[in-house]
């Protein structure tokens, strides 16, 4: 790990602590899996509103596995892309019940073999449920890691591999949690609060703006 990367992580630790948080409300591994599937192109806050009633109605994995497709679509409609999400949730839940004994698997290979589960969702489960060092590349991590010069890639999987090389394993899960908080509080996609930013000295975009301003 370079001195520069260590300085960035130290500032994140100092500002946001090293406490592990999951922003999606859940009580079981399968609930987190479904909540994460619903969070694609949707805010965690909206997902939590939807799952509050959803997990009361479908209080077992079996109820999701054998749910009526059109009814489930209406139940999850506020999260967007509800046709695909409902189909994937039913297919995923059914496979978990029929092939995995109702348990959410731990390996990346098994998780990504489930309908609607990509690397991002799989790593959320591995990190939060099984405490396996995993890097979750969401929109905040993609955008801010590029700004901080930790990757030049655009593809989430390539970004994941870049971050695995530069971040120590004990920060793989933590980095995502901290960067989400940072992205929501300071580094907005539009109109970031650069003057309030404690990482601006390490931000390539901020330095670029300053140079243009000096010309």
Automatic annotation (TrEMBL):
Every HhH-GPD domain range: 38-185
Positions annotated to bind [4Fe-4S] cluster: 187, 194, 197, 203
Top enzyme class: lyase
Keywords for the protein's UniProt record, in alphabetical order: 4Fe-4S, DNA damage, DNA repair, DNA-binding, Endonuclease, Glycosidase, Hydrolase, Iron, Iron-sulfur, Lyase, Metal-binding, Nuclease
Cofactor: [4Fe-4S] cluster
GO BP field: base-excision repair, AP site formation
Catalytic activity of the protein: 2'-deoxyribonucleotide-(2'-deoxyribose 5'-phosphate)-2'-deoxyribonucleotide-DNA = a 3'-end 2'-deoxyribonucleotide-(2,3-dehydro-2,3-deoxyribose 5'-phosphate)-DNA + a 5'-end 5'-phospho-2'-deoxyribonucleoside-DNA + H(+)
EC numbers, comma separated: 4.2.99.18
Pfam family, one: HhH-GPD
Top-rank taxon, per record: Bacteria
Cofactor note: Binds 1 [4Fe-4S] cluster.
GO molecular function, one term: 4 iron, 4 sulfur cluster binding
InterPro entries associated with the record: DNA_glycosylase, Endonuclease3_FeS-loop_motif, Endouclease-III_FeS-bd_BS, HhH-GPD_domain, HhH_base_excis_C, HhH_motif, Nth
UniProt function note: DNA repair enzyme that has both DNA N-glycosylase activity and AP-lyase activity. The DNA N-glycosylase activity releases various damaged pyrimidines from DNA by cleaving the N-glycosidic bond, leaving an AP (apurinic/apyrimidinic) site. The AP-lyase activity cleaves the phosphodiester bond 3' to the AP site by a beta-elimination, leaving a 3'-terminal unsaturated sugar and a product with a terminal 5'-phosphate.
Family note: Belongs to the Nth/MutY family.
Protein's recorded name: Endonuclease III
Organism, scientific name: Diplocloster agilis
Lineage: Bacteria, Bacillati, Bacillota, Clostridia, Lachnospirales
Gene for this chain: nth
């Amino acid at each position: 790990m370079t001195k520069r990367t260590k300085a960035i992580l130290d500032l994140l630790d100092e500002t946001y602590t090293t406490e592990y948080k999951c922003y999606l409300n859940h009580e079981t591994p399968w609930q987190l899996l479904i909540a994460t599937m619903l969070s694609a192109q949707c805010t965690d806050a909206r997902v939590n509103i939807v799952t509050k009633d959803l997990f009361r109605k479908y209080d077992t994995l079996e109820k999701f596995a054998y749910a009526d497709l059109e009814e489930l679509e209406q139940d999850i409609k506020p999260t967007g892309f509800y046709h695909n999400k409902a189909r994937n949730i039913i297919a995923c839940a059914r496979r978990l019940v029929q092939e995995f004994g109702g348990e959410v698997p731990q390996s990346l290979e098994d998780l990504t073999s489930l309908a609607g589960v990509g690397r991002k969702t799989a790593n959320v489960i591995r990190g939060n449920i099984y405490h396996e060092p995993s890097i979750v590349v969401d929109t905040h991590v993609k955008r801010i890691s590029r700004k901080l010069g930790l990757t030049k890639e655009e593809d989430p999987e390539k970004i994941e591999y870049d971050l695995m090389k530069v971040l120590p394993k004990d920060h793989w899960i933590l980095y995502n949690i901290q960067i989400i908080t940072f992205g929501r509080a300071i580094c907005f996609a539009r109109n970031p609060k650069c003057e309030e930013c404690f990482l601006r000295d390490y931000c390539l975009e901020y330095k670029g703006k300053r140079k243009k301003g000096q010309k």
